[in-house]
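ESCALATION

Customer reports they have been waiting on this structure for their group meeting. Please prioritize. Original submission:
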Amino acid sequence: MSDHIHHHNEEHFSGSEIVRDIVIGMSDGLTVPFALAAGLTGAAQGNGVIVTAGLAEIVAGSIAMGLGGYLAGKTEIDHYASELRREYLEVDTHPEKEKQEVRDVFNEYGLSESSTELIIEELSKDKDKWVKFMMRYELGLDQPDINRARQSALTIGISYIIGGIVPLSTYFPIFSDNAHDGFIYSCIITAICLFTFGFFKTKIIGQPPLIGAFKTLFIGALAATAAYVIARMIGG
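Update from on-call: job pushed to the front of the queue and completed.
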């Protein structure tokens, strides 16, 4: 009988936070510098201005995005620590109220009263496990990685730089001598990258990849078109 037993291995995607940071950095990196370069193409004659402005934007954008990721991660850590202190205090000062909150959690799952009381009795013997349970199931908070803020900042910043170099690279002298050619090449390579990035991004998170690919491509194209048209109008 044991020879016919098949072990079921559940496969869940891990590393969602890293992927989220890459998506944030890469999406903006591909879109914003591309829109900027497109807008400058409509107003500038030479590639030098576009490359200089583009590089400046990539540096500033990567720092701003990375800092935003760091502050978001730091806020998450601080929030968890604050709630953790509050839960420890409430367990000490209002244990019966906290036990009732445990009952409320298990009532939602339809557990019998006797089973619930047994769990509460066991939980209340270990304050750390009790507080951890309340953090997870009452507040819906998981303990964040203490290094999360720095990792997030680094991941978002690097992803933004990589994404930003793609549309700007075609304006370098080795690719084109004038802004118009650079713009055409930039449109082609950025469209391919946006489509590919959108495809794999949505595939990883379990969404229809083609729909995600076209959405990402559409957003990038819309931003670049708007910037180009506005620059043309202002530049006369």
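Sent to customer with the following note: Helices lie at 16-41, 47-93, 95-107, 113-123, 127-138, 148-169, 179-204, 209-235.
Escalation resolved.
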